[in-house]
Design goal:
It is a single chain. By secondary structure, the protein is α/β, with parallel strands linked by helices. It has one domain: 3-Layer(aba) Sandwich (Rossmann fold). The chain has a 6-stranded mixed beta sheet, sandwiched between helices. Helix 3 packs across helix 4. It is globular, with a radius of gyration of 15 Å. The protein binds zinc ion. The site of zinc ion has 4 residues, from loops.
Amino acid sequence: MVNHYDAIAIGAHPDDVEAVMGGTLAKLIDKGRSVLMVDLCDGEPARHAPPGERAAQAARAAEILGAHRMTLSLRDRMIQDTIPARLELARLIRIHRPSYVFTTLGSGIHPDHKAVTDIVVNGVFYARSRNGAKFREVRCFPGQIRMKSAARSLGIAEWSRPGRFSISR
Ligand SMILES: [Zn+2]
């Protein structure tokens, strides 16, 4: 797995990212950009799939798109915007230094889908913090992070809003 990614796309469960913005990721990758897909949990147990099937499908989706993918260890249906969750995202962002961070905009009644938006926005905020003692060993990265509702991501030409975060050295 490479260290730097041009874009990181973060969803609550396996299949969220590709369902919401798979086309945009395909465009990015087609233009030579590196993409990391991140699922906050493994989505287990799943109602309509035996254990492990979602993971296999997620890996196959990333393979088809040409992205890398990783799964964090939060618990399905119990994802909350907590300090540890924000810090985990901030750590990930600092390690991979993306130019763009995408997440889904909370929708429907699933609490995980509501929580992931806040975790990512707050994680970006933490990643940018110069005073975060936990990250003192990691340098801020140059460029900009743009938060955008993946649901509104119809193409890379439309990246600009909302919530633009400037990163300074
Ligand atoms: Zn989901």
